[in-house]
Design a protein that fits this description.
By secondary structure, the protein is of the alpha/beta class. It has one domain: Aminopeptidase (3-Layer(aba) Sandwich), CATH 3.40.630. The chain has eight helices and six strands. A six-stranded mixed beta sheet has the order 2-1-3-6-4-5, with helices on both faces. The chain is globular and about 45 Å long. Its EC number is 3.5.1.28. It catalyses: Hydrolyzes the link between N-acetylmuramoyl residues and L-amino acid residues in certain cell-wall glycopeptides. GO terms for molecular function: N-acetylmuramoyl-L-alanine amidase activity. Keywords: Hydrolase.
Length: 272
């Protein structure tokens, strides 16, 4: 069963195993026949859908560089170019959580991706780093405990609210817990694969941050049923990175590299 099938069972098909408990591995043969009539999982859709999230926006400018570069402008331009290249050169579908300069709460960004049943959620950023010398691309997955103080500092700056958005209130608590655990395990594993693929692939052409694969408790990565990665394309707190990200030609180049790696990633068995 894929992630979305598991969650469909959680929110719409109550069932019990022996003694009222469903053990891992029992779920598939306990599903009622009506489940077969449910809409097929989004993972079967062609082309695959990447939901791109340009960080910040509106009243939230994000980081502001030494030359006055606003993170919200950099991320929006990068996200639009990435979506364009995914559609035109890679044959993938791409959506944006925002297409102009307006503010979205973190939970709303997650909701947009989940409602679209995206195959991958990619949040684009160009933050201010705790260390002004830090520069280069890096990627982050969700973890309750940050991999390091650097990642924790970034997450603390990004998190305004903590809202998961999954409604399991009509499901028996034991069943809901088991199904949520199954779904989030699969999602976490796919997110790690995505992070590794993006970093290793992009690293052939782009400068990487030291230890570029990190994790922290980013609210925007908390969709339980969609693999999610936050990519720092560079840091506006670093003058060299800012100069790079201010250049439209360089932003287009970065978008092209990310599009190439995302296409490779979504063609892999992990996302089948």
């Amino acid at each position: 069963m894929d992630r979305r099938a598991i969650l469909r069972l959680a929110v719409g098909i109550p069932f019990l195993g022996v003694g009222g408990i469903v053990r891992p591995g029992q779920a598939e043969h306990l599903v009622k026949p009506v489940a077969a009539a449910a809409r097929p999982p989004a993972a079967l859709r062609t082309p695959r859908l990447v939901m791109i999230d340009p960080g910040h926006g509106g009243k939230d400018p994000g980081a502001i560089g030494h030359a006055g570069t606003y993170e919200k402008d950099v991320t929006l331009d990068l996200a639009k170019e990435l979506a364009l290249q995914l559609r035109k050169t890679q044959g993938l579908n791409a959506g944006l959580t925002r297409e102009d300069d307006h503010f979205l709460e973190l939970g709303e960004r997650v909701d947009v991706a989940r409602e679209a049943k995206a195959d991958l959620f990619l949040s684009i950023h160009a933050d201010s780093a705790p260390n002004a010398n830090a520069r280069g691309l890096s990627a982050y997955t969700l973890s309750e405990k940050a991999s390091d103080a650097f990642s924790q500092a970034l997450a603390d700056k990004e998190n305004y609210a903590d809202r998961l958005g999954l409604d399991l209130k009509h499901t028996k608590p034991v069943v809901a817990d088991i199904l949520m655990d199954l779904a989030t395990r699969r999602t976490k594993a796919a997110s790690l694969v995505a992070r590794q693929g993006i970093v290793r692939g992009a690293g052939r052409d782009l400068r990487l941050l030291e230890n570029p694969m990190r994790s922290a408790n980013f609210v925007v990565l908390k969709a339980p049923d969609i693999p999610s990665v936050l990519v720092e394309t560079g840091f506006l707190s670093n003058r060299q990175d800012e100069a790079l990200l201010r250049d439209p030609a360089q932003r287009k180049r970065i978008a092209g590299i990310l599009a190439r790696e995302l296409a490779t990633l979504l063609a892999s068995p992990t996302f089948a």
